[in-house]
Prior knowledge:
Chain A: It is a multi-pass membrane protein. The complex is a heterodimer. Chain A contains 19 helices and no strands. Chain A has helices at 3-27, 33-39, 46-57, 60-73, 75-81, 85-106, 111-119, 122-155, 159-207, 211-221, 237-248, 255-258, 267-298, 308-316, 319-357, 363-386, 390-416, 422-442, 451-469. Chain B has a domain at 43-79. In chain B, 29% of the residues are buried. Chains A and B meet through helix 5, helix 6, helix 10, helix 11 and helix 13 of A and helix 1, strand 2 and helix 2 of B.
Amino acid sequence: xxxxxxxxxxxxxxxxxxxxxxxxxxxxxxxxFIQDYYLGGRSLGGFVLAMTMTxxxxxxxxxxxxxxxxYNEGLGWVLLSVTQVATGYFTLMILGKKFAxxxxxxxxxxxxxxxxxxxxxxxxVILSSISIVIFLFSAMAAQWxxxxxxxxSLTGLSYNTALFIFVLTVLVYVTFGGFRAVTLTDxxxxxxxxxxxxxxxxxxxxxxxxxxxxxxxxxxxxPNLITPFGADGTLTPxxxxxxxxxxxxxxxxxxxxxVRAMSYKDTKxxxxxxxxxxxxxxxIMLNMHIIGAFARAIIPGIEIGDKVMPEIALNVLPAxxxxxxxxxxxxxxxxxxxxxxxxxxxxxxxxxxxxxxxPEAAKEKVKKISMTITxxxxxxxxxxxxxxxxxxxxxxxxxxxxxxAAFIWPIVLGLYWEKGNRNGALASMIVxxxxxxxxxSFYPEPFGMHTVVTSIVLALIAYIFGSVMVKSKxxxxxxxx
Amino acid sequence: MSQQKxxxxxxxxxxxxIGIGLVLFNFIWWFGFAYGLGSADVSEYHYIFGxxxxxxxxxxxxxxxxxVLVFFIxxxxxxxxxxxxxxxxxx
Lengths: 481, 91
């Protein structure tokens, strides 16, 4: 066990955790518990908004998994990963002011709230709530497993102990802190990621004897490592380009991202977030994947991709610095997990309980239920992560693409196409999810592109067809764009 | 209310179109340099600051140029609008 690294790692995490708790104190003064707990009272500033978007999105898969794949595939995987720079500006520009204005008018707190008011349909609400709970729940379990593994490989604690520490930290501050605590800790975690990857990249370049030397080394290992086509030339332009949809443009439809696009204070913060977000996402994605690709030249022969980040950090940095830098991937996982947890909880409390079970619930009761559900969910996920069932692992494969295929058109066309109606939205969600699962299982990667592309196209056809062919009566009170 | 167009929506629509324009530009820049320069044989690669030229232009300059573009476009073309109803009525 590396004590120095472990101490500075846990130290950094503890500081983040304390700030989350302090933020939760501020919360009790405000009037609407639901607005505050799940949306931070719509008061995010530009910096916090940009950072929370980045941190929520930069999850375990991109932080731990990504550099591991770049280690094996070389610069071609870095090329694929920079497609994510689009999330920095595109998501916010598309949802943009319109989403914030509409959700404020509707008094919407969640993405489902927005869909409910826009389409005025019980079926839309129930279908979208269920898909959010199922998909995000399994995504969350996968992240927790990742968090446990990271602590395990860094400190040498057993997986179960590591997982327990991880879960306890996250649970305490999400349960008591709510959205404000989550976004604030996200801002710190985003900053750690930004600075951490920068420090690590510089250290890697120095350790490797400069960029030209590293590139020559890579070329000697396998010339394909410095081409855009991956280690064995299998990354085709069509496949790599389709990641523009999966991790770039499609991110608009992820509920954990969309909810952030309605939580900012004013358009000034929004503009600032666009600028900061683009720079921060771009730099983090570029750095961290270059680190992964370059690591191959410095420590060859790492077999498990997930170990690339921890090993390279411990190799090129003093142990205590490595601990702080590695707080970044841990921070990334934590911030993804905490926002997912809160989102699943808000879906259950706000979209199902308050909508259909007890619309008249008093503030104190809602508060109690929100916290209980958040904590309860966390405990269930913990039990799942201790011994993950196959079903969860299977579902997790579909989580991101499935949510994108389900929600992209109901949200985007719901905002910008006034003829879109509930039939279109329902058809689009059903076709999106089903086609994604079916293609993924039986005919993966049609046309050489990631499966999500086909499903999004089919979902678009379904949305338009459903809206135009099966007209529903225009509803009083539906806002026209 | 439902028939009357909110003036803020035309601003929002224009900004969404700018977003689409930016992402298209981003994609063309990224694709053009990556596969335009990267498809050559490795022995014919040029290098800039040690990076293969395709990578340097497509990824490093690509990210940089998007950051700069977003900065100028937001500063120049994005308009502040009020979110509060009272502020709206003053207009």
